[in-house]
Amino acid sequence: MFSLQGKVAVVTGAASGLGKATALRFARAGAKVVLADIADASGVAREAGGVYVRTDVSVEEQVKDLMQAAVEEYGMLTTVVNNAGISGEMSTVDGISREAIDKALDVNFKGVLWGIKHAVPRIEDGGSIMNTASYAGLLGTPTYGVYVASKAAIIAITRTAALELAPRGIRVNCICPGTADTPMAYVEGAEIELKLSCMLQPLGRLIQAEEVAALYHFLASDDCAMITGQAIAIDGGMSAGPSLGVIGPLYEKIFNDTLKIEDFKAAE
Ligand SMILES: NC(=O)c1ccc[n+]([C@@H]2O[C@H](COP(=O)([O-])OP(=O)(O)OC[C@H]3O[C@@H](n4cnc5c(N)ncnc54)[C@H](O)[C@@H]3O)[C@@H](O)[C@H]2O)c1
Fold it and tell me: Which domains are present in the chain?
């Protein structure tokens, strides 16, 4: 029943938020865990009974060393969660700087790419590789161009890797969270955006880190043997269409307008 006994999992971005919740949940489900982060995750590693390997995921050599460290510590690698990420600089497309797009791609996209690349020669056949994309990889999001591009690239590489690794029974999936209740969402001045997120997500609230960890738990388990190459939304229904929270007020606003079908017909 979704047991992770016998699994050895690497989780990046494990010092905080979604990665921390996932590493702790994997450990509770029986996995040995290797926690990677640029920030200190040794306390979380102690709590999980695992090990912390300081890693900057944007540096390929460090990601290679991380995967090797998991094999040396626990004798094998079965499970990888490439989750570390940054929100990136905000700007409309016409103002995107070379530095901002390079940084977002280096951490968010290449961090995942190196994670897949260096897992491949080490991970057991039948293993599971999972990547944290975002709803922003599925939908355009004004002023988040660099983030959106980096997350859409994760979805693309996930599908490609899934096809390449299927002959070995290795599944590769990514998840697309809506706005989640983690430090990343709480940048100064984000109150309006948070309120908006709750309105846009039809279920009406932020996603909890534990709920994302539960999805990763399922994807990591052998019970999930036939799901690969997917970008799975965990977004309170946001990608299903406009929520009543958005449509409702618009509907009320125009309810008393005098509207005629003729007004919508193209002029003859
Ligand atoms: N919080 C949200 O609303 C949300 C929504 C969709 C997707 N995501 C994605 O979820 C993932 C986890 O984010 P979170 O919400 O838990 O945020 P978080 O800020 O709590 O955690 C991100 C972690 O990644 C680590 N990190 C950043 N750059 C790194 C690097 N170069 N190398 C190694 N570690 C690095 C940070 O130190 C931090 O511990 C990210 O990829 C993020 O883009 C978050």
Answer: 8-262 (3.40.50.720)
pLDDT in tens, 22-48: 999 999 999 999 999 999 999 999 999
Distance of CA 124 from the midpoint of ligand 1 (Å): 26
Which residue carries 């946001």 as its tokens? Answer: 238
Instruction: Please tell me the distance from the alpha carbon of residue 117 to that of residue 32, in angstroms, as a whole number.
Output: 21
CB neighbours of 264 closer than 8 A, spacing ≥ 6?
A: none
Measured from CB, residues less than 6 Å from any atom of ligand 1 are 12-13, 15-19, 37-39, 55-58, 83-86, 107, 132, 134, 177, 179-180, 182-185
Is the full-model pTM beyond 0.70?
Answer: yes
Report the separation in Å between the CA atom of 30 and the middle of ligand 1, taken as the mean of its atom positions: 24
User: 251 an active-site residue?
Assistant: no
For residue 183, which atom of ligand 1 is closest to its CA? 20
Closest-CA residue, ligand 1 atom 36, reads 13
Kindly state the tokens that stand for 101: 């797009």
